[in-house]
Each structure stands twice: as C-alpha cells, then as structure tokens.
Amino acid sequence: RKEVEQDPGPFNVPEGATVAFNCTYSNSASQSFFWYRQDCRKEPKLLMSVYSSGNEDGRFTAQLNRASQYISLLIRDSKLSDSATYLCAVMGRGSTLGRLYFGRGTQLTVWP
Amino acid sequence: DADVTQTPRNRITKTGKRIMLECSQTKGHDRMYWYRQDPGLGLRLIYYSFDVKDINKGEISDGYSVSRQAQAKFSLSLESAIPNQTALYFCATSDPGLASYNEQFFGPGTRLTVL
Q1: Which parts of A7-112 are beta strand (E)?
Q2: What is the DSSP letter of A94?
Q3: Residue A99 pLDDT level (bands cut at 50, 70, 90)
Q4: Nearest-CA residue of chain A relative to B91?
Q5: Is A8 on the interface with B (CB under 8 A)?
Q6: Between vectors from CA B36 to CA B33 and to CA B39, what angle results, nearest 5°?
C-alpha cells in the first residue's frame, strides 16, 4: 500500500469556482502534512503546511482529518493562475523521520 | 540567485553510459535529497543525506549512487544508464533548525533522456 494516495484528476473548473482535492495517508502516526504546487516543467514549491486541524491562507484552506487519515485542499474563487499540479506530502515517522512521501499530484486547469 | 542549483538542466545520453547529475545549494542546509518524477507517478525518493557523513537509500535506489562531497554538494550518478531512467530529476534541501523545518526547497530539475 502506498504511503500517500491522491486523486490525479484532472480537474477542469471555470474561474470563480471552488475546488477541493483530497489525499489519504497510511501511517496513522504521521504528524506533518503539506501541499506543494508545481507548475508545468517547474520544481514543486510549498503552498501550505498543515500542522494541526487545518489552516487558511487567503483563498486556500488546508484541513486534516486524523480519524479518517486524509488531508484536503480547498481553493475558493479560482483564478486562471491557480492552474497547476498540486502535490500532497506527508512526513515520515520513526526511522523515516525527515523524509517526505508525495502523492502523485492532482492537475488543475482553471478556464476563463 | 538560485538557492538550489542543478547541472545539467537537460541531458540526452545513450544506454550504458555513466551519468552524473550535480546539485549545489547556498542555503546552508544540512539535509539534501534526490527525487525522480515520472508522469503519473509523482515524486519518488532515490537517496537522501542528513549530513556529510550520512547517506540513506530511498524508495528507488537501485541503479543509482550518490556522493555528498560537502554540505553544499550532493551528486547523483547513474553507473550504466538505461531507458527507464528517463525522467525529471529534482534535488531538494531542508534544515531541521528552521521553524518550518519540514519544508523542502527544490532545485529547478534535470531532464534526463536515455536512448
């Protein structure tokens, strides 16, 4: 079983729409979670960290559900510039502390 | 100036050739990582190093080797390249001393094609 599972999409939404991505993880002891954004042929860049029950940054909200072992990313009022691939990542625990396990990425296209 | 640099940015080579990909960082981070990315498979960890004397295998280390020459340099070698090693390779760094110590900072990537 993979450490992190993520719906690859693609998601195609109009400007102004709200879109949500989910990601499940297998290690119930995991403590640190992240969302990265990756533009086409570019390197991933940290979008948000999720350390507790969730956090918000402008139009972006990241949530964590420990009981069901999933994290989500909500994007409100989508912009054309939000088009990218969104990768979830989970920090390892114990002997794998310091390693990040990435999902496959979810591709988002926002159209005018 | 880029904090994490990778050379070369693009490389086309032939099966059986030895290839070295280099990563340098000016961030002063102790931890460095090598990933490969294939379409539909996300990022997979090849090797990682938590300091100059520490080297660890990741998920897919077979066919690869690494060298941590200094805190700032971490090289990835393909001893005998094969076509299924065609991928986009990323180097990354992190620093456990930072408040956001889990964040990894990625280089721009090296696109490798093995014919």
Answers
A1: 11-14, 19-25, 33-38, 45-50, 54-57, 60-65, 70-75, 84-91, 100-102, 106-111
A2: G
A3: confident
A4: A43
A5: yes
A6: 150
Long-range CB contacts for residues A45-49, cutoff 8 Å, separation at least 24? A45/B106, A46/B100, A46/B103, A46/B104, A47/A73, A47/A86, A48/A73, A49/B100, A49/B102, A49/B103
pLDDT category, A2, cuts 50, 70, 90? Answer: confident
Model confidence over A11-63: pLDDT tens digits? 999 999 999 999 999 988 888 899 999 999 899 999 998 877 788 999 999 99
Q: How far is CA A3 from the centre of its chain?
A: 14
Q: State the nearest Cα–Cα gap between A19 and chain B, in angstroms.
A: 21
Average pLDDT over residues A93-111: 87
CA distance A89 to A80: 24
Strand A106-111 versus strand B4-7 pairing type: unpaired
Inform me whether the C-beta atom of residue A2 falls under 8 Å from chain B C-beta atoms: no
Is residue A105 left, alpha or beta, with left meaning phi > 0 and alpha meaning psi from -120 to 50?
Answer: left
Tokens standing for residue A36: 């990265």
Q: Which residues of chain A lie closer than 8 angstroms to B106, CB-CB? A: 43-45
Q: Is the torsion defined by CA of B33, A99, B105, B29 positive or negative?
A: negative
Q: Mind listing the pLDDT tens digit for each residue in B55-66?
A: 999 999 999 999
Q: Please give the interface size between A and B, counted as residue pairs whose CB atoms are below 8 Å apart.
A: 47
Contact between A50 and A34 under an 8 Å Cβ cutoff? The reply is yes
